[in-house]
């Protein structure tokens, strides 16, 4: 019996038509005709999910030693979201939550659990957009779902292959002609190639580069020397600069094809910065590694841009999260927000910041028994407050407006606030599924859907025809 996920894929492929001549062409004539009719009303959507990007590592959010002129330019033509979160760090659960638009704990993913399947009875964002008539493309890192759920089987019609790397390197690739290439540059070129081929129809593009994940030690000197950073942060800076260069390629491509006002862009990180590499969550503290209990591990820099639809060069200070990207994308495409979504349409809040928080409360509950204990996290955000359960000291309460470094525990001074927030967390936790781990499902650890290695693009129509 076919699963619902495969049925959706088959239906989507039949509706959309084949994705051009395999290898280059783009769309069938019928798809182009449909796209021409829809293009006036349906915006393109691009999600830029940067691995381990810290709040204090982007110029638009206060960074002074690493130049990010292109991310800053994106911020100038959009909204800087200063209270944006991931609800289930680190990388794999964060990505699963974004792609499903829901707390991953609802399908049992309370931590890394690589290899844990996505729910088959709910569409991924890519599936939803594909079936709404969008060309869907993915470039970069996946790290989502089970080994049987690569991006080509989760709604992406075109997936950029990852060039083979030199030895054990993650970033130094071997080009088709035998020369060496820089992975982030290659990923950026694939991103703009997708845009060029789909510029005449509505498209959904998910760009998730390997950068700025460790090891930044591979970063060439020509990138490092473009920053003012020093020590180990200097190598990280080169990695961030390389990502910023790709954002520049994106903005140039959109302007070249007249798509600037027709494109909704989200930019954020999958979790906080890698502290071992010198990443910064300033003005907060914490991040990946030894700071996973603090605000910086889940508080990420987020920029949303759609010139002509939402304000430019503005701020949104309300509580929001990456779960909202699914709902906002669906609303922008004028299709119903699926009932499984925990996120909300952010556009009204970005237009009217006085509306306040998109979410009155945000919750965290990381407790995968196979994860290291330092990744376990129980926390709540409400207004200016962060309530966090310390493994030895119980609930701790912080006023993030006055104390962003979380140095002064106010739980004893505000017991009523602690009770309110803890009660809300308990109510939310009752709605979740039991904890599942990859091993409990008979799957090997540290596996998930894979992006093919090679050159050019993999097409879903090729993969699904083999099922």
Descriptive account of the structure:
The protein is an alpha/beta fold. It contains twelve helices and 17 strands. The protein has a nine-stranded mixed beta sheet, with helices on both faces. A four-stranded antiparallel beta sheet has the order 13-14-15-16, with helices on one face. A two-stranded parallel sheet has the order 3-12. The longest helix has 25 residues, at 232-256. The chain is globular and about 65 Å long. The termini are close together. Residues 6-40 have low confidence and may be disordered.
Brief rundown of the structure:
The protein has helices at 4-16, 29-38, 69-76, 91-100, 125-130, 183-197, 221-224, 232-256, 324-332, 347-351, 415-429, 460-464, and strands at 44-50, 79-81, 84-85, 135-140, 158-160, 172-174, 180-182, 203-208, 263-269, 302-305, 314-316, 320-321, 361-366, 377-382, 385-390, 394-399, 457-459. The chain has 467 residues and is of the alpha/beta class. Mean pLDDT is 91; it is low at 6-40.
Q: Based on CA inertia axes, which overall geometry fits?
A: globular
* Termini Cα gap: 12 Å
Strand order of the largest sheet: 11-2-10-9-1-8-4-5-17
From the alpha carbons, calculate the radius of gyration and give it in angstroms.
Answer: 21 Å
Strand content: 15-25%
Number of H- or I-type helical stretches: 12
Structural class: alpha/beta
Mean pLDDT: 91
Instruction: Characterize the main sheet.
Output: 9 strands, mixed
Low-confidence stretches: 6-40
What's the count of strands?
Answer: 17
Helix content: 25-40%
Q: H/E series, N to C?
A: HHEHEEHHEEEEHEHHEEEEHHEEEEHEH
